[in-house]
Amino acid sequence: MLSHNEPPAVILVVDDEAAVNGLVTRYLRHLGYTVLDASSAEEALAVVRRQAPRVDLVLSDVVMPGESGIELAGALLSRVPGPSVILMTGVLPQEVERVDVDGQIVRVLRKPLDLDELQQVLRVTLEGYPADGETGSVDRAG
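^ thats the sequence. predicted structure below, dont judge the formating
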């Protein structure tokens, strides 16, 4: 659980599958995060563009109708300041744990999600704790 002396991080979950969005959103709220959701890259960009609430991290599916999660990551990572991005997929090769998006390395989580791994990756990304055994291949996406 998160500490109570600072506001919880705001996470935007982006997946065109309502069941995935609902499961991940409920889990992240249980962990104490403030969670928003979107069903497309376009909708996600509209949420991030709004000044309030802030978005600290975007957790996005890779394969969606319209723009992909990788295209969304590129748009978000070009913003300064902008949110961190983590991608989730069931289609990239199993050994791909990170992708290079316009020169920035983005973490990739496998679907179906391992909720313990998700919690650890979020903690590392949002709170800066070092992860044990951070290795894995990088896929050049851009």
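The mean pLDDT is 87.
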